[in-house]
C-alpha cells in the first residue's frame, strides 16, 4: 500500500550484485540529491557479491540529509519486482527510477527532477540515450539496435514517438503510479510501464541523457536475448492486455483486413498479402472499436463491387482510405459519449 506523501521525491534504485559501483553512486547522489525532503530506496534484489553489506555500511555512515531506506529481497526476483517493491515503500510526490550501475548519470536525473518540479503540467519524463546533446559511450551494436527496433514497434502499436522506451532513468508523478498496476518482474518492466502510462492518457516527455556502457566483465546483466524477449512483451501489452471490446475489435478487424489482402497478388503472393493485411488489421483494431471498424469494412466492401482485376484493387484501396477518414470522424464525435467503447 502506498504511504502518505511526506517527501517531494522518492528515488528507487534496484540493486543486484553492484558492489563495485555503489560507493561512487551514493557519492553522486549526495552531490545532487542531498536534501531532507528526498528519500532514497535501495531495493537489494538478492545480491550475493557483498552489495548487501556495503549498503548497510553506507547507511551507517550517515553523512547525508536524505532519508535512506534499504529493502532486502531474499532471492533475485528481477528488476521489475525490485521497482514494484520500492514503489510500495515510497512516500514521495514524485518517483525517480535510477539504475545502480552508473551507466546513467545522476546529474541528468537531477536535471529531470528540476524540470518536472517547476512545471506541474508535466507528469512523466523518460530519459533517452539516443537524443543528441549528451556524452555517450556505447559499443554494444546489437543491444543498441534491438532497443531502437523495440522503441519503433512500441511507437507503431501505441501511436507514440518515443526514441528510447528501455532507458532506466525515468521520473513520474504519483498520480501516474496510482493509475497503473505493474506486473512484469524482469527487464520487461520498461515496456509494461510505458504502455500503461500511454493507456491512461498521460503524455511522456523525453530528455536526452548521457550513457556510459559497461561490459559483461564489469557486471552488465541485460543482453540481446533480453531485447528479443521484449518483443514478446510488446505483443503481450498491445494485443492481449486489453479490454474485451478491444480484443474483439482486433479479431474483427484482422478478419476484414485479410479480406482486403485477398484482392492482391496470386497464389503464394496472395497468401502472403492476406497474412500481412491481417497483421495490419490487428494494429488497426487497437484504434477502432467494433462500430467504427464496421464503417471501414462497409466502405471496403462497397469498393470491392467496382471494376475488375486491378480496377477492383484500386477501388478497394480508395474506399479503405475514405472509410478510415469517416470512421475517425465518428470516433472523435463519440469519444466523450457513452458509446465511446464501441467507436
Strand content: 5-15%
Low-confidence stretches: none
Number of helices: 12
User: Structural class, from secondary structure content?
Assistant: alpha/beta
Q: The CATH topology of the largest domain is what?
A: Spore Coat Polysaccharide Biosynthesis Protein SpsA, Chain A
Compressed to H and E, one letter per element, the order equals EHEHEHEHEEHEHHEEHHHHH
Main beta-sheet annotation: 7 strands, mixed
What is the radius of gyration computed over CA atoms, rounded to a whole number of angstroms?
24 Å
| CATH architecture field of the largest domain | Alpha-Beta Complex
Distance between the termini: 36 Å
User: CATH class of the largest domain, please?
Assistant: Alpha Beta
The number of domains is 2
Written account of the structure:
The protein folds into 2 domains: 7-239, Spore Coat Polysaccharide Biosynthesis Protein SpsA, Chain A, CATH 3.90.550.10; 244-342. It is built from 12 helices and 9 strands. The chain has helices spanning 22-33, 51-61, 79-88, 106-118, 141-158, 174-177, 189-199, 224-239, 244-261, 268-287, 290-304, 310-333, and strands at 7-15, 38-45, 67-73, 92-97, 124-128, 136-137, 170-173, 205-208, 211-212. The chain has a 7-stranded mixed beta sheet, sandwiched between helices. Helix 1 links the parallel strand 1 (7-15) and strand 2 (38-45). Helix 5 packs parallel to helix 8 (224-239) and helix 11 runs antiparallel to helix 12. The chain starts with 6 loop residues before the first strand and ends in a 10-residue tail after the last helix.
Amino acid at each position: 500500500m502506498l504511504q502518505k506523501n511526506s517527501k517531494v521525491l522518492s528515488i528507487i534504485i534496484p540493486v543486484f550484485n553492484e558492489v563495485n559501483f555503489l560507493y561512487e553512486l551514493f557519492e553522486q547522489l549526495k552531490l545532487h540529491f542531498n536534501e531532507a525532503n528526498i528519500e532514497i530506496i535501495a531495493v537489494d534484489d538478492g545480491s550475493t557479491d557483498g552489495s548487501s553489506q556495503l549498503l548497510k555500511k553506507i547507511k551507517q555512515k550517515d553523512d547525508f540529509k536524505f532519508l535512506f531506506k534499504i529493502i532486502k529481497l531474499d532471492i533475485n526476483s528481477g528488476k521489475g519486482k525490485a521497482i514494484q517493491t520500492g514503489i510500495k515503500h515510497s512516500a514521495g510526490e514524485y518517483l525517480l527510477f535510477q539504475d545502480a550501475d552508473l551507466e546513467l548519470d545522476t546529474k541528468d536525473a537531477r536535471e529531470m527532477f528540476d524540470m518536472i518540479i517547476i512545471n506541474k503540467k508535466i507528469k512523466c519524463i523518460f530519459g533517452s540515450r539516443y537524443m543528441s546533446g549528451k556524452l555517450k559511450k556505447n559499443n554494444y551494436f546489437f543491444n543498441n539496435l534491438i532497443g531502437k527496433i523495440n522503441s519503433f514497434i512500441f511507437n507503431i502499436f501505441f501511436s507514440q514517438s518515443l526514441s528510447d522506451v528501455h532507458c532506466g532513468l525515468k521520473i513520474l508523478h504519483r498520480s501516474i503510479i496510482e493509475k497503473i498496476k505493474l506486473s512484469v518482474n524482469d527487464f520487461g518492466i520498461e515496456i509494461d510501464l510505458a504502455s500503461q502510462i500511454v493507456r491512461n492518457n498521460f503524455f511522456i516527455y523525453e530528455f536526452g541523457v548521457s550513457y556510459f556502457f559497461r561490459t559483461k566483465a564489469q557486471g552488465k546483466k541485460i543482453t540481446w536475448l533480453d531485447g528479443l524477449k521484449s518483443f514478446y512483451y510488446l505483443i503481450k501489452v498491445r494485443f492481449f492486455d486489453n479490454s474485451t471490446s478491444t480484443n474483439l475489435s482486433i479479431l474483427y478487424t484482422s478478419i476484414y483486413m485479410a479480406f482486403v489482402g485477398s484482392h492482391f497478388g496470386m497464389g503464394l503472393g496472395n497468401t502472403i498479402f492476406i497474412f500481412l493485411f491481417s497483421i495490419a488489421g490487428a494494429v488497426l483494431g487497437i484504434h477502432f472499436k467494433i462500430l467504427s471498424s464496421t464503417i471501414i469494412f462497409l466502405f471496403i466492401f462497397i469498393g470491392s463491387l467496382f471494376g475488375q482485376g486491378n480496377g477492383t484493387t484500386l477501388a478497394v484501396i480508395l474506399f479503405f482510405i475514405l472509410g478510415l477518414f469517416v470512421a475517425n470522424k465518428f470516433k472523435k464525435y463519440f469519444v466523450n459519449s457513452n458509446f465511446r467503447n464501441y467507436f
